[in-house]
């Protein structure tokens, strides 16, 4: 399975699609987020590379998310526990 999403997140690449809404970031539209998403407390629901909805599992100690095209990422890799 591809690890492209994990590599992009670890490298700090700017997202093409917003991870909480799936909207294209370059579209210039205002992105309205919930307070918890604005604070960075929610798991990403959309792949930041392709905008596809991801399969997300929220656990007591973090989360993991999987894009069918770009692979899986776990909050442990990002230091978000």
Description:
By secondary structure, the chain is of the alpha+beta class. The chain has one domain. It is built from two helices and three strands, in the order H-H-E-E-E. It has a three-stranded antiparallel β-sheet with strand order 1-2-3. The radius of gyration is 12 Å and the shape is globular. It starts with a helix and ends in a 7-residue tail after the last strand. The mean pLDDT is 90.
Give me some keywords for this one.
81 residues; 3 strands; 19% strand; three-stranded antiparallel sheet; alpha+beta
Globally, the shape reads globular
Count of individual domains: 1
Give the number of DSSP strands. 3
| Number of helices, counting only DSSP H or I runs of 4 residues or more | 2
Give the spatial strand order of the biggest sheet: 1-2-3
Query: Could you estimate the helical fraction of the residues in percent?
Result: 10-25%
Question: Largest sheet at a glance?
Answer: 3 strands, antiparallel
Distance between the termini: 24 Å
Function: Required for the activity of the biotin synthase BioB.
InterPro entries: BsaP_C
Domain Biotin synthase auxiliary protein C-terminal: 54-79
Keywords: Biotin biosynthesis, Iron, Metal-binding
